[in-house]
Each structure stands twice: as C-alpha cells, then as structure tokens.
Please model this.
Amino acid sequence: MNKKMKIGLLYTLIILFLYVGIYGLASFLDTYLAKALIVNNILLYTPLGLFILGLIDGRGHGFSIRVPVLAFLLFPLTIFSFGEWIWLYQVIYSLSAVVGCLLGALLCHIKNKSL
Model:
C-alpha cells in the first residue's frame, strides 16, 4: 500500500471514530455522561476534529479535497446510529473540514514562500 492510501485510510478511520465510534463508547457509560459525550461530540468534538484533520492535511499537502469529501461521504453512517439524517450537521462538518484544509494550505504556502 502506498503512502497516500495509508494516509487516506488513517483519515477514514479517524472520521469513522468521530461519527460512529464515540457513540459506541457512550453505550458503556452512565446515562448522563453518555448524553453529555454525545452532545459534545455533535457540537464540538466532530467539527473540531474535522477542522484539525483538514488543517494537518492542508499543511502537509497544500489544499486537498480529500478530507472534506471523506467527511461528506462518511456522514450518512450516522443515519444508522440515529435513524435520521440532519443535513445541517453534514454541511457544518464538511465546511469545517474545508476551512481547515484552506487554513492548512495557507500555512503551507506561507512556509514555502518564506523558504
């Protein structure tokens, strides 16, 4: 497996954990702690994780659409967790990945320009 495929697989696993894995962990917790984890995941952890993942990818490779596309395409897996699809979350999560990629690409450009 080449390096790009390994990185893509790692990104996919991280996004899957943000979308589905945390809900699996919540099933082992106390009810109130599980609810807090789920709400924090929806509102904070997933957008922040996708932003950071996009930032890392953009910083390393310049602007790449890989992370936002993975974030967009893997989101329907949450339908199995919740039994419903909330398009607003899909848009917000994808946009946070795009913004992270753009900021990472900007940092990459500034780094290359200063060298």
Q: What stands out?
A: The two ends are 32 Å apart (CA to CA). The chain has a mean pLDDT of 86.
